[in-house]
Design brief:
Low-confidence stretches: none
Order of helices and strands: HHHEEHHHHEEEEEEEHEEHHHHHHHHHH
Helix content: 55-70%
Mean pLDDT: 96
Largest sheet: 7 strands, mixed
Length: about 550
Amino acid sequence: MTNFADGDPALKPLLDRLLTAEDRARVEPFLAELGELAAGELDRLARTADASPPRLVQYAPDGERIDEVEFHPAYDRMAQIAFERFGLAAMSHRPGVLGWPSAVPHVVKYALSYVFVQAEFGLACPVSMTDSAARVLRLFDRERYAPEIAALTSTDLADHATGAMFMTEIDAGTDVGRTETTAADHGTHWTLSGRKWFCSNVSADIILTLARVPGQGDGTKGLGLFLLPRRRPDGTRNSYRIDRLKDKLGSRSMASGEVTLTDAYARPVGELKDGFRQMAEMVNVSRLSNAMRAAALMRRAVHESVEHVRRREVFGKPLLEQPLMRATLLPLILDAEAGLGLVLESAAQLDRADAGSADAKGLVRILTPLAKYTLCKQARHVTAEAMEIRGGNGYIEDWVNPRLLRDAHLGSIWEGSSNVIALDVLRCLRREGAHRVLAAEYLSRLAALDLPGTAEVTRRWHALRDEGEELLGQPPDAQQVLIAPYATGMARAVMATLLLEQAAFESQRGDGERKLLVATAYVSGSGAALPVLLNRLETVAG
């Protein structure tokens, strides 16, 4: 395939439904360009950068401590494509990126990023953190940090700054309230001292981090959010050191490290008493980015598998014609396509929420952890199955499958492991009645449809709403035990609804039956319709 956007049977029809006609027309040439890059040059660069990870240079030849991270030129070229050519970290924050008259919709950003990540996963982390750092500063301290926002959202690498969040400590990963880094007020600025244990994009120019504010209390309420610049206002290197880079299983093109802060210069962001809430905004946006990356990994894995089974002949006929292979491949296609629908639905609701919709804000609050929890788990399975489909070659580093598998495992850990995210879903049920919010939203949308499978998904939503009430009636410990499978059930009901909705859209405009086959297969699972659907796999695969 020469273009990952053109070859994706689900992406463009989804954008046709979710975007205005003007925005859909604007994005088309950029989808074509990035799709070609992702299938060609970007894919080759990613392979080189993955095999040539960054290197920490702690000292200059004269012995001065410099803590510089050196990247392979392939990584630098990918950064130019992401930050400069396409402005992936800038487009949500200001007009003019890619010629847009306003800020680019989140739907467009996540769609383009999804295409990019099919070639390169690691750089998507700095892109996401730069984007989310700009968002936090805009939301909570826009005037004070106008120069930093301008640098984070620049599309000229000459004056561009990348962002990061240094949050994890040795004893403060899942339990952020155990953060031990301390902050000291010096009037014109603060200084921070402590250790940060897992710092991705460790050489970032603008870092947001949490530190304990004297007299503010224990736990998360005692934490303030601070902006930690790589360089002080006088241009000198800030007083923190990069102790070492992490030797990661995946995402090897991007530098993650361990950092020691020693009276490091910093400034507060917003109200210090709101530090944890402000950091949570950055984390939540990053979680949606994780879900997007999982969907992209699944799509690339499915693409590789479909291309392989079409070419590979076994026992006298192509693998694609072997019944058991069809049964193996179909659920991978369905999971990948359903995942993309969930990501773009979440992005569309984020667009509505940023425009002032309280209803959409409530939906984003629950869709984000559901997407992160479910899709990151699915990506681990899909990439593993795709490796097996390719056989022995799939286990060899000459092919992309090992990289996809390694990268997929990170999504379930970054920005909160699966258990942490499941507990966040539980929090949404307890505080906002999220199960009722979702049921009301998607039952109303199902009521407008008249397709096979609609009645089944409607029944599921009624059952999920009742099960949510029963779950909340259990003791707290039992709620925690039950929330993981319940979260999976809710996410799958959302995705089934979205597939049916998209199938209705495509059928109404005469696009054929492909999406209806996908939706029917997803809803039916291993039901009686499965043999018929397997016989139509060529149509489903696209």
